[in-house]
Design brief:
The protein is an alpha+beta fold. It has helices at 11-15, 17-21, 34-41, 89-102, 120-128, 152-158, 161-172, 184-201, 209-221, 265-279, 304-310, 330-352, and strands spanning 5-8, 46-53, 58-68, 72-77, 107-112, 132-133, 142-143, 145-147, 178-180, 225-232, 235-245, 248-256, 284-286, 318-319, 324-327. It folds into two domains: 5-138 and 322-352, Gcn5-related N-acetyltransferase (GNAT) (Aminopeptidase, 3-Layer(aba) Sandwich), CATH 3.40.630; 143-318, Aminopeptidase (3-Layer(aba) Sandwich). Helix 7 packs across helix 10 (265-279). Pfam families: Acetyltransf_6.
Length: 357
């Protein structure tokens, strides 16, 4: 097992954060980005920039930190650590324990969710490292991924027949996809489409507009986010916000009117975005959230409709291992897991009206 050293990033490394993160073994993740750190700083989290140095590679990871009375600090390595192989996780966590103890950081637990494909072997390694499986937090712990490296004509032919036919029909009928500037009006229209779609098709609720406004602004001003709209009768009927980060494009947010006349409009939005991401250097496109692969056809799953749409481009769903907790202080972690997390989440939501994570 290789040895790793854990430390905080230097000021120079933080200045080049996105460049370093996207050079990680798996290319990083938009939720480890400078833009996302800036958003979460305004929503109750203290961003920390953590580095794991090993014999063969260095991994840069965003940590979201929150402090709690009597317990200390919780670390959330969102979509991390980024590793070359699951077998590196135990060594990284050992380094994390040493770092936290030596630096007296008062961290009682670390929550991790590496982008490692789920398997019995991966679960055995994670559980063998003392990790405890906990509920997943991010929508793309189960997701549809599309290889977009082929040239456009070949890529279109490789799409699932449902998606390919919808794109071709929308092109024949001259549906127009508009690339929108990140103005307040664009963001308001995007949010309205999202809220309408969630109300019609999901059991969850949307975050407040201000959260999305900050999120979209941070990524857009760095040249990492784009809005795509389709109009019908002069009003936005389909909207999407897509992020290019490293070698991956991600369909982060979307919404549409429930009654529309233009067939294939939402598919064409994705097709235009996919080709834009490809031109920007992306090799993979993440549709960002489906039901787990074993529940893809379950109509009772809250993401059933989204899963059907997203798998009309790619037939398969990728399941990642999801969220695990590492107890750094067993006594305090027991208090957290028994009642503390539930209590603090309730108090935070009541006080702010916002989501805890």
């Amino acid at each position: 097992m290789p040895d790793f050293i854990a430390r905080f990033a230097t000021a120079a490394e933080i200045e080049s954060w996105d460049t370093l993160v996207t050079a990680n073994p798996n290319g990083g993740n938009l939720l480890q980005s400078e833009a996302f750190a800036a958003v979460k700083k305004n929503y109750g989290w203290n961003p920390q920039f953590l580095v794991f140095e090993g014999p063969n590679y260095t991994s840069y990871n965003l940590v979201l930190e929150k402090s709690f009375p009597a317990l200390g600090k919780l670390w959330y390595l969102i979509k991390g650590p980024d590793v070359a192989d699951v077998s590196d996780i135990p060594a990284m966590l050992a380094a994390l324990k040493v770092f936290v103890k030596r630096a007296r950081l008062n961290v009682f637990a670390a929550k991790i969710e590496p982008d490692i494909v789920a398997s019995e072997e991966a679960r055995a390694v994670l559980e063998g490292a003392g990790l405890v499986k906990v509920p997943d937090l991010q929508p793309n712990d189960h997701t549809a991924l599309l290889d977009i490296s082929p040239e456009p004509n070949e890529l279109l032919r490789k799409l699932h027949s449902r998606g390919r036919n919808a794109v071709r029909r929308a092109l024949r009928e001259e549906v127009e996809v508009v690339r929108m500037e990140p103005t307040e009006s664009t963001m308001r229209s995007m949010y309205d489409l999202m809220v309408g779609t969630i109300a019609a098709k999901a059991t969850t609720t949307a975050r407040d507009f201000e959260y999305y406004r900050q999120f979209w602004t941070e990524f857009s001003r760095r040249g990492q986010g784009r809005f795509y709209f389709v109009y019908e009768d002069g009003v936005p009927s389909v909207g999407a916000f897509v992020i290019n980060y490293g070698a991956k494009g991600t369909y982060k947010d979307g919404g549409s009117l429930q009654k529309r006349k233009q067939y294939g409009d939402s598919h064409l939005v994705q097709w235009v975005a996919i080709n834009d991401m490809k031109e920007l250097g992306a090799r993979e496109y993440d549709f960002c959230g489906t039901p787990p692969s074993d529940r893809l056809k379950d109509p009772t799953h809250p993401h059933h409709g989204l899963g059907l749409f997203k798998t009309s481009f790619t037939k398969t769903v990728t399941d990642f291992v999801g969220c695990y907790d590492l107890a750094l202080s067993p006594v305090r972690y027991k208090l957290w897991s028994k009642a503390g997390e539930r209590l603090f989440r309730q108090l935070y939501t009541r006080r702010t009206g916002k989501q805890f994570y």
